[in-house]
Structure formats: C-alpha cells, structure tokens
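Hi everyone, sorry if this is the wrong subforum. Our group has a chain we'd like a structural model of before ordering constructs, and none of us has done structure prediction before. Sequence below.
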Amino acid sequence: MITFFRKLRQQLLSDGKTGTYVKYAIGEIILVVIGILIALAINNWNENRKAAITEIKVLKEISENLGVDLLSLQNDIRLNEEGIKTVQDIEGILDSNGTLTDALTRSFGSITFNPTYTLNTSGYKNLSNIGFQIIVEDSIRKAITYLYETQYSFLKEREETAEKVTYVYLTPQFQEYFGQIKFEMRKNQLPAKLYYPKNFEDLKNNGDFHRLLDYAKEIKYGNLYDLNVVLKDIRRIKTIIDRYLEDQSH
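Answer:
Right subforum, don't worry. Here is the predicted structure as tokens:
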C-alpha cells in the first residue's frame, strides 16, 4: 500500500499536479494513523483478555483456598467446643464426688490442648505477586485484602496469644497437681495423654484447681469467638467471589 502511494506521488509530481499530490499525501498519513490505531486497539484487546483470564484464575484459587479454610476452621471450632465440654464434664465429676477413671485421666490430659489454625494463602500470595490491580471490582479487591491482611493476621495473633497463655501459664500450674503423665497410643489417632492426680480427692474442693479449669474454658471460649468472627467474613467474601465468577462465565 505504501509503495503504491509512493509511486502515485512521484507520478503526480512529475505531471505537475501538486494539489492532487497533497491530497494523496494526506490520505496516506490518515491510512497510516488508522493502521496504528487498529493495531493498538487489537493489542489492548489482547492484553485485556489476558488480564481477564488471569483475574478469573486467581479468584478461583482464592475461592478454593477459602473453601478449605472454612472446613479447617469449622473443625477447630469443633475441637474447642469439645474442649469446653471436657472441662465441664470434669467439673461435674468433681462436684458430684465422682471416682477417678481412665476416661477422666484422658480428660485431664486434654485440658491443655490448643488447636493450631491452618490457613491457605497461596491464592492471595499469587494475587500479590501478579498485582492487585488485576481485580477489576474495587469491592472484591478491598474485601480480599481486608480478609487476608486484617482478619487472618488477627486470627494468627490470637492463636499465638492463646498458645502462650496455655503453655506458659496454664500448663505448668495445671501439671503441678499431677504426679504421673502417660501416653496412650491409639490407632489412626494422635497419642492420648493420661494425667494421674497426686491427690484426686483434694482436687474436688481445691479452689485454685477449679480456677485453672475455669481459665482453660475462657481460653477456648475466646478461641470460639475469634473463629466465628473470621468464619463469618470468609463465608461472606467467598460468596461475593463465587457470584462474580458465575457472572463472568455467562
């Protein structure tokens, strides 16, 4: 096309048709500009298409991560609820002047157990590496950032605090009341700890020991509150992401 216009310009100049030459020169410039604009538009379309594919891929990974986290944290809730019930059962036995059994020694051994929260952040790390601007919807981008940077960080901090008060404060004082600790191997389960009291009858009316039991419950109640707060946000944000993904698939 350019060669054609070049020959045409030369022919017009040699024929002395300057006015017509100018018109063709302008036309050639316009065609070149149009060609550049079309190329840019095609390039932008391709880049936008690639960005959209990347956005969907990242959001799907985050949604999958959140689904796994939901199940994991729900299990942690179950463990804390079971821990609270165990303490309540121990209190019931002590208050009713019950007897020491193997089941009770296992219950004593589980008092100082504190769940560790496993959170999946591969999708969020991937998003961070790619760039948060890949998420088109501001509300989704802000919700995801809030969940991982604020709520997940908060939950891990609370987990560390619960572990510290459990293993640094509660456990040493609790173990003072027990003379022997055994481990019971169980098939397809973690070993169970069996705590044998130094003086079981003394525990029934020992105010300090009962306060330790109350403290163990308070730690688990605090865990439940933190877990439920974060679980609520996970469900909400996962729902937002899944709805967006569904809309983009149509």
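For your construct planning: DSSP finds seven helices and two strands in the chain. The chain has a mean pLDDT of 87.
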